[in-house]
């Protein structure tokens, strides 16, 4: 179904059904369109610079813990590369062995104009190279002046968050005529380490460093990020041409659940798009290129000097990625009943991942982790939408894809340690070229018996080819394996060139009851079931056992996931004098199992719910929110995943808007509760992290304690 919400983390009520019109997407199921309000919302302040945080109230959505601006969205138990995540139509790829630069890290929350979240049955026109939801983030649309006029406007904002001493600022300015628009957007955010609700480790100086950490201080959680963009647009009555140029610089972003830290990330993006309306329908196209230069080493809270004489300086790790693509799609109005969508996607990705020698056992050669990595994808799709009558709609689509992957010869630091010679020789001798022929299909029907209800049911088959690291990371040396990890579980991984693509078969249904105008009360229930053939999980490489970090190899196995999302909204009171009071609730449950091994899937969010009361009167909006999370007892045995306890958090937020100014204040985790976030991973945020046994096993990354935040936004 199609729903609309504003980015207001202050109110869960924001996610409930409200009809909207979306050109060329009238049949997309289970869509949440997140539209940015005219002034900064409390969500932008509460999440700092992490745009993934704007999705925290979408039913079925959770976030993997990572760096301060790099959380990974997870929908219905599937995350990271298993979701298709686009930023302004670009399919961005994380150029990092730890996935430290995921797609949503390339746009600041203040620059977000809208987000489409398509869960459940994803139409083939919106899917591709993924087995889960599609998340499409768009920056703010270009603005134009009235005919014959000129437009000059802007917006500036700043915020402060007490926990971690986080602060940020953003600025946007637009100059436009009735046919041309130019917009500059810039944002900067930085934070120190945040603190948990109580001590979870001994306080003191981290051995071998100059860093002193308090007992409640979560090491390696500091970050700084700067994003800038320039958007140019030309339009006439039926055509829009846009060019967007983007720059990102992250000087540092430390990770509490990874053994390495980001010490620099620089990216440049160019994105040209066109959309035009014709008598026969709508034509849209896009061409883009993104270049990323990424560096990792040990941050301030992790041991930098290694070796018996403490004279080996860290472990520099470098990656460089070139990601280019093109898309074209036509929405053809075949008749009053039928719409045909046809299109093609092309993506060309190149990756180099090398580790310069630093002395000791990490010398004299450069370690090549991925050399001349290539991943090229070409898709064709066709989709038929039929509005049979006022009650019945159907959508059927087919997508065919070819994914070609390869990599060049590799080498270790030397030929005497860590199985470097044997592993690299075996890897170089084998045929590494792979070609996957993938097929996706979707079938959906919607029944709308009247103005107060709608029902939807569908089936999809979706396919994802492995990424370069899953197939081509090659060294079984312990230190090298510790550097390959997207999961944040503290374990070490190695790839398998023989991995097959994942194929997910999904059934999903939605029942949606609401008032006739869709602006008052509503209840939505979405159960779903997925069976994934050749799910890329992990198997023990050797020496595994309980209660310790282990070494694993990516492996194809079969998995199943099922769950339910429930969301509801109800007006409780309304008066001209005191305003309105609205209650809302969201509940999500997902269960994931590896049916090959009989074990549980990793990082499955336990049963959780949010309850909120929102009061609005004049320019005031006040929200009280309760978040309740069950204990996580079903964990991945092969990974020695950590269990976490249940908890509840209470949040308060308030905002006041008048004329051109808005002020937001709030308190997250009001009672300073200590808790371990179920998807936070294993704590390896301090100490001798290069060694698998150099940091203690069994400590989850704790969530943030009480945090007071405030922000101001001014339009001019």
Based on the model shown, name its key terms.
globular, 4 helices, 36 strands, mainly beta
What structural class do helix, strand and pairing data support?
Answer: mainly beta
Globally, the shape reads: globular
Unreliable residue runs? 1-30, 33-41
Residue share in β-strands: over 45%
* Alpha carbon gyration radius: 25 Å
Counting DSSP E segments of at least 2 residues, the number of strands comes to 36
Query: Mean pLDDT across all residues, rounded?
Result: 93
Helix run count: 4
Measure the end-to-end span: 37 Å
- Let me know the largest β-sheet: 22 strands, antiparallel, barrel
Helix content: under 10%
Structure explained in plain terms:
3% of the residues lie in helices and 52% in strands. With 716 residues, the protein is mainly β. The N terminus is likely disordered.
